[in-house]
Amino acid sequence: MEAFSGRPPGPGRHPPVGRSRNGRARRIDLRSAAGQVFLLQVVIVVLLVVAAVVGMVLQAASDALQQGRRESVVAAQSFASAPGVAAALQSRNPSAVLQPRAEAARKRTGMDFIVVLSTKGIRYTYPYPREIGKKFVGDIAPALKGRTVVEQVGGPPVPAGRGTAVQAVVPVTDSRGKVVGLVSAGITVKNAAGLWLPQLPIILASGAVALALAITGMTLVSRRLRRQTYGLAPVELAQLYEHHDAVLHAVREGVLITDADGRLLLANDEATRLLGLPADVRGRSVRELGLPEPVVSLLSSREEVTDEVVRAGDRLLAVNKRPTYPQGDRGGSVVTLRDTTELAEISGRAEVSRERLKLLYEAGVRIGTTLDVRRTAQELADVAAPQFADLVTVDLLDTVLRGWEPTAEGWRHLRRAAIGGEPRSIPVYPLDEVIAFSPRTPQMRTLQEGRGLLETDLRRSEGWWEQDPERAWKALEGGLRSLVAVPLRARGIPLGVANFYRMADSPAFEPEDLAFAEELAVRAAVAIDNARRFTREHTMAVALQRSLLPRGQPEQDALEVAWRYLPSEAGVGGDWFDVIPLPGARVALVMGDVVGHGLHAAATMGRLRTAVHNFSTLDLPVDEVLGNLDDLVVRMDNEKNMGDAVDGQEGEEVTGATCLYAVYDPVAGTCTMARAGHPEPVVVRPDGTVTCLGVPVSAPLGLGGYPFESVEVSLPEGSQLVLYTDGLVENRTHDFDVGVERLRRALDGSGKRTPEETCQAVIDALKPSHPSDDIALLTARTRMFPPSCVAEWDVPPDPAVVPSVRARCRETLREWGLEETGFATELIVSELVTNAIRYGSPPVGVRLLHGRCLICEVSDGSGTSPRLRRAETTDEGGRGLFLVAQFAQRWGTRYTTRGKVIWTEQPLHDSESAASGPAPVDFLLDQFDLGQFDDPGL
After folding, report:
1. Model's pTM, two decimal places?
2. Are the C-beta atoms of 825 and 813 separated by less than 8 Å?
3. CA 515, CA 512: separation in Å to the nearest integer?
4. What PANTHER family does UniProt report for this protein, alphabetically (predicted)?
């Protein structure tokens, strides 16, 4: 502000930039403003002198020309009217008479020439005699008519030299008035230069005086300018002013300068805006401007003010005031104004931005906590409402909810996946409803264009009205105001639309809100797409796992079975169970758990389940089954390690599994079981007592080299055997022992329940809200074969007793009412007993079991198993097992600690299927001689 205050720099202040430091300030610099003004004045003085000389010359020439014209006319008329001229022209030799007289008159009058002419323009006289007789140069026609002619022409040389001649031509008349000749007198113009030459010194002297005065004046003006501009050059001064003016009017702070009388000297643009000043404020008193009284009082006082807040209309202004001349009494002050109202508004915007960032952070924390598509969509709606919008709806493509890859064909049909906020009286589509949007709706447009759309006023949104006019009208009546619709896109693929609504009592959405909604949608879309992809993989894995698990209960008489299987939220696991019918009405129960989740665990579970089925078909003891499973898991690990070693990942993952294998015999009422790292089964006695069977635990599968212990326990009829995986009793909230105790409490009083009721009660009591591991539960209630349905006797090792065995078998079948199967059963028993006596070793026994089918068992002490073969025509034997296989539905051999048992199963009440068998009895008897059978009793 110093450049405008008028204060000279103090003695201790440095000269401003641009002040001369080498003495050049004492002489005029032609590059300075004063030097340029001086040079201009010199040019003006020179031009004035030249103009004066030129004017004087022109004036003198004009005067000389006029004088020459007058003198020419007088001289010509005087000579023409002289006595004897007319007579001389009519004489014989006019030139002889008139030449001397014309020359005498020329010299006497000072003319340059006096020429006497004939009427034909022939010269009779001339200063140079050689020109006499030649044609006159000039216009003589008017003179022949009696008029005087004055003209400027150039002609032959004259004594005065060449130049423009001014000549007058007058007629010469006789006494009768007849023109008898012409007289021309003239003078050259250059002869008039003597009129202005004497005045030339005066003009030059005047120009020199004017130039000296200009130099003196410019020197004084230059010195004063230097003092007032502190030696700044004009360019520097102009730049200083431009910069000062730019800063003064561009700064976001009002600046006022007043004088000692309170008149306003300066007000920048910001001060004019803040105070609402008129355009013509310079020089007016602050009391005449109509300002608020607090502002007028502050501007009129001479006190200094620091950050005093005053109100000016709807603004709060922070005022600072300082005097312009603090060391003198000239008065005046500089006032600065700062709008704290806008600072508060800026602070409000910063607060809004901070809240938006906080909301984005909260969205990153709260959205995507699970891998469920609907849950993720609801999290987006809950985060945005009511902090950003009053009502939020999320509509997803049906394919997204199912986990499939979305396509453009399904855009028209979106399913309402989430609603956030309070709909109040607004009619919104309910959850899970399929909505068919029209092409002009904001939802469909945002899907097609791939960008968010802002509808500030829904009353003017034609596409929104087009969807459902009645529903739209009710929504507007309910207070709906504006909408932001943004697409949910991930990896460039549209997943759905998020709709953010605001009510009439909330501010309408602005472009900044659209950008924020798009950012929020981007974060949510990634989480939704992750959940979609997980849903797809989870569905595939569940489908694979379900295909590997039992699809129905097998037919068997030993147990009443029910089960439950609940997959975890973390992904498909490797839990499995099985109910496998075994020979002799026995049933094998299997419960296993493969470590890990996903397709690998499900595939491993499938392999182990298949292996258990194969081992059970061989009817191996329970400990051998687990031993073979252990070997299989070890081989699977070795195969995987060999495959991973190629990729440099040897031993990264090792297959681990637990398994419980139990075989229940309904005839003996015993259950033999062994477990490899699996939780111990629980038994609910018929009286409701819950106990553990004390099955010794062995190492999990896959460790290799460890033996597996088995135990045989007696189970009363009606006991419930409960098998489960660790996901039922163990989770993040409690450990395994607490879970087992909770299971025991859930099973209390289950003695009278059915297995189905027991399973449901356990699941209701122990199922976690968000299972982190698969849960498999199997409940089996035991049954016993009644003694009346069991027939068993020992057979001496003598072929002669075979007929008595057939007779006893026939009698037993008659008691059971199975006469229809008598012949086939007798044939089977006869063949098996004959083989046992002939090829086996004592003791030999026969057992018949009457259940859903008729079971025949023949045991002996030999470990050699018979095999079926086709006998040749010349063979004496070898057709007995062929007959057995034809009449029995199933047959096989199982080994015991005391030998082996050959068993068969025959369906009951199925005479039609038996009659349509591939080898009827009549056909067999026609083909084979009875003497060829192994049984001599036949």
Report:
1. 0.53
2. yes
3. 5
4. STAGE II SPORULATION PROTEIN E (PTHR43156:SF2), STAGE II SPORULATION PROTEIN E-RELATED (PTHR43156)
Alpha carbon distance 678, 729 (integer Å): 12
Same domain, residue pair 113 and 147: yes
**Largest Cα–Cα distance of the chain, in whole Å?**
214
Q: What is the CATH number of the domain that holds 688?
A: 3.60.40.10
Whether residue 695 is found in the same domain as residue 752: yes
Q: What is the CATH number of the domain that holds 430?
A: 3.30.450.40
The string of pLDDT tens digits covering residues 758-803 is: 999 999 988 887 777 888 999 999 999 888 899 999 989 888 888 8
pLDDT of residue 23: 43
pLDDT beneath 70: ranges in the chain? 1-35, 155, 159-164, 189-197, 199, 233, 325-330, 341-350, 408-412, 570-571, 641-655, 867-880, 909-938
**Residue 670: strand, helix, or coil:** strand
As a whole number of angstroms, the distance between CA 579 and CA 557 comes to 12
Q: Which residues contact 323 (CB under 8 A, 6 or more apart)?
A: 302, 304, 331, 332, 333, 334
Find the domain containing 255 and state its range.
250-340
Among candidate residues 747, 782, 817, the one where a domain is terminated: 782
Q: Tell me the C-alpha to C-alpha distance, in Å, between residue 217 and each of 43, 105, 880.
A: 15, 59, 153
Which runs of consecutive H residues, i.e. helices, occur in 767-874? 802-816, 822-839
Say what the pLDDT of residue 91 is.
Answer: 84
Domain assignment present for residue 20? The answer is no
- What are phi and psi for residue 497, nearest 5 degrees? -135, 140
- CB-based contact 556:585 (threshold 8 Å): yes
- pLDDT score of 722: 94
Q: Tell me: do 760 and 869 sit in the same domain.
A: no
Q: What tokens does 896 get?
A: 């015991």
Residues in Cβ contact with 34 at an 8 Å cutoff, skipping those fewer than 6 apart: 28, 218, 219, 221, 222, 225
Beta bridge partners of 590: 578, 661
Residues in the chain: 938
Give the closest residue to 390 by CA, choosing from 476, 452, 479: 479
Start-to-end Cα distance in the chain: 138
Q: How far apart are CA 391 and CA 758, in angstroms?
A: 45
Question: Rounded to whole angstroms, how far apart are CA atoms 731 and 740?
Answer: 12
- Is the domain of 314 the same as that of 334? yes
- 387 with 538: CB under 8 angstroms? no
CATH at residue 843: 3.30.565.10
- Residues in CB range of 173: below 8 A, 6 or more apart: 86, 146, 179, 180
Residues in Cβ contact with 755 at an 8 Å cutoff, skipping those fewer than 6 apart: 560, 561, 562, 720, 779, 780, 781
